[in-house]
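[agent] plan:
  1. take the single chain provided in the ticket
  2. run structure prediction with default settings
  3. attach structure tokens to the ticket
  4. add a short note for the reviewer (M.T.)
[agent] executing step 1
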Amino acid sequence: MLKVCLIVDNEADFYYNIPSPYICKSWVRLIKWKLNKLRGILYRYPWPSRNGFKNLIKKFKQYNIPATFNTVGHLYLKKCQGWPHYNEEKPTVKWFYNFKKDWYYWDQEGDYKKFPGKYLGDIIEEEKRNRLFDFGLHAFSHEAYLLETKEFIEKSLSSGIQACADIGVRPVSYQGPWNMVEEETQPDKLIDCLIKKGIKIVAYSGKNNLDFQRKEFRIAPLFKKDKLNFVWISNYIEGTSPHSKVKEIINEISSNLYENKVYCLAMHDFTWKNMKNLDLILSRLVQLRKEKKIEIKNMKQLI
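[agent] step 2 finished; step 3 output follows
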């Protein structure tokens, strides 16, 4: 029987402030990011990223659908005094400093009331005991871990885990910013650190190199490397996606009902102002589950 797993890159306002390491390789990507950043500033109120997170939680509850929110470590906080928060370091790679006003510039003292798009700890604390939800990690400040040293990665992951612990969450799931999990020349660098920090399952879309972002989608069984489980990302959907994307996803799921595989559907939190796409998909999933043609699990439940 096909297992369906819904996962969310839970990055809120980090989307508008942390540039991709691949951006400098393409003027088109750079311009697109700057426009998105400007849009994030202009439409800061009423905090679309925070509301997107709340909208997803409400919708998953409505349909009784499990989901994993792989959340930036800083977002587990309810308040902070700015950088550093625990034991994390600043990135060392050069691309990060091509942008004068990076995350460490605007990470100032505040809380979820003053800057609702930077802190989601109040919401997560309320929802952490809900059996539907699995709260995992998405780095600490949306860093490009594959470009950093093991020491940097370990300190950053430790900070994320500590932020989770402060509100009573123990993450076992992980999704890398820009799908960075495994690099071609040093494939075990991040994986070793994740295992060491107690992560059990990772969302995966192939090996990356430093020249391009890999997004290789598959409908595949869960697989294991060392002590770490991997679930292939099968497709992406957003609140801004066209209706054709909804039809594509429903067709893919319907074509694999009797396979012993996982269909992992990924999305971002900040795009969900319009919930029509999700309603169509979730209503279909509920129907298939009622007919006992699929199982719906979050990442933690897969293991």
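[agent] step 4 note for reviewer: The domain at 2-302 is CATH 3.20.20.370 (TIM Barrel).
[agent] ticket updated
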